[in-house]
Design goal:
The complex is a heterodimer of chains A (215) and B (194). Chain A is mainly α. Chain A is 83% helix and 0% strand. Chain A has one domain. Chain A is built from eleven helices and no strands. The two termini of chain A are 29 Å apart. Chain B is α/β, with parallel strands linked by helices. The relative contact order of chain B is 0.23. Classes of the chains: A mainly alpha (215), B alpha/beta (194).
């Protein structure tokens, strides 16, 4: 168990060291800044569509750290060294999912507050957005680690990652956007279900991908 | 010190649809060292990776008692971290005492580089750091893939000394190298010849 903590702490520290934490946040805020320029300063329209835009921004922001999640450690032989010590690949990828969520989910939820202000979202919508992100970002983090492991070591991994991740994230987007409606309470349960499914699958899929990479 | 052993039974390895080697048998006990010899591409590294558990053997089985440490091409140290912190991370995972990193850096004469980030080190210094990581792991069985590559004469002497100490302590060494290593009463496995 202490090994798991050691792995998580290392990954969190590295994420801050490599600057990967701020990229998704800045991207998310940029989208929130640019959207009113695109559709015009029409308050009611922004309030009506802004929540959905922020969900799309969150999805796209989750693509940015993918090339840093697995590939550098796989190339440096660090993942092999874990394996030599008898730490299973699933354990490593599971720790990475947790560490990635810690450096991705909460910062995005903080960024959602000024973003909601820029898009004139009401307080109620903001609360529903935050709750949706709280339930949905763990799923996105799991998906990111899975896709990062599948594309590690490939050329053009970034573009391929987008093609792999975005279709799989569609359910999260549908229920995330659906949860913004006042009558959308059941959507939260579906976001949570999607996230739990991805969290359950990701460590095993990513672990299998890492093992396949060694062949 | 007893009970450290490494046994290979009829190992065969297939890579990319090609049989690299087969029927590799050997048994190593405390203090034993074995050198894997063979031309480039014969599968020396693959055999070490099979022993390390990173590759599945096509046939046969590997049995070992004791912990493993692998030094291969990859230094496996965080490039941004200072050398002592990067080595300390593995020492912490391995549960080694806090001064083992300093000892290991002393053994490979890289103590003066302790505060230098790993990415600033030269090829030879990185190789010495890799070997220091193996020493600091206090592992029972060392798997060394071309440990002498990129090392100067002085460093080779340090490597020989480190390997000798490891064997005196009852450790096991399996090395792949095409240059002579200073291992006494050494046994060799030849693969990929004929």
């Amino acid at each position: 168990m202490s090994q798991l903590f050691t792995l998580i702490i290392r990954d969190v520290r590295l994420a801050f060291g490599r600057g990967g934490v701020w990229l998704p946040v800045i991207f998310f805020l940029l989208v929130a800044t640019l959207y009113p320029f695109g559709v015009g300063p029409d308050g009611p329209l922004l309030a009506k569509t802004g929540g959905g835009v922020l969900w799309i921004a969150a999805l796209l922001a989750s693509l940015l750290p993918i090339d840093r999640l697995i590939a550098p450690d796989a190339e440096a032989g660090i993942i092999d060294q874990f394996a030599v010590r008898g730490i299973s690949d699933e354990w490593i990828t599971g720790a990475r999912v947790i560490a990635h969520w810690l450096t991705f989910g909460p910062p995005l939820m903080f960024a959602a507050v000024p973003a909601a202000g820029l898009l004139r979202l009401s307080g109620d919508t903001l609360i529903r957005l935050e709750l949706g992100l709280l339930l949905g970002t763990p799923g996105l983090a799991a998906l990111s680690v899975m896709v990062a492991a599948l594309t590690a070591g490939l050329r053009g991994a970034g573009a391929l990652a987008g093609l792999l991740l975005l279709p799989l994230a569609i359910p999260l987007l549908i229920f995330g956007a659906g949860s913004l409606e006042p009558a959308g309470a059941s959507a939260f349960k579906l976001i949570a279900a999607c996230s739990m499914f991805l969290l359950a699958v990701a460590p095993f899929a990513a672990g299998a991908a890492i093992r396949a990479m060694r062949e | 010190m007893l009970g450290r052993q490494l046994i290979l039974e009829n190992i065969a390895c297939v890579r990319g649809g090609r049989l690299l080697f087969k029927d590799i048998n050997c048994a190593l006990g405390p203090g034993d060292a074995k050198l894997i010899r063979g031309p480039n591409g014969a599968g020396k590294s693959s055999l070490l990776r099979v022993i390390a558990g990173l590759l599945k053997p096509y046939a046969g089985a590997v049995a070992h008692q004791g912990t493993l440490a692998l030094a291969d091409e990859a230094h496996a140290l965080d490039p941004r971290l200072p050398l002592d912190k990067a080595l300390g991370f593995w020492a912490a995972i391995d549960g080694s005492e806090s001064d083992t990193v300093n000892e290991a850096m002393g053994a490979m004469r890289i103590s003066h580089l302790a505060s230098v980030p790993v990415r600033m080190l030269s090829t030879g210094q990185k190789k010495r750091a890799t070997l220091a990581r193996v020493i600091a792991s206090r592992a029972d069985i060392w798997l060394l893939d071309e440990p002498g590559n990129g090392l100067d004469k002085e460093s080779l002497t340090l490597l020989d000394a480190a390997m000798a100490i490891h064997r005196v302590r009852g450790g096991v060494i399996m090395a792949a190298s095409h240059q002579p290593l200073g291992l006494s009463d050494l046994k060799t496995i030849a693969i990929g010849e004929g």
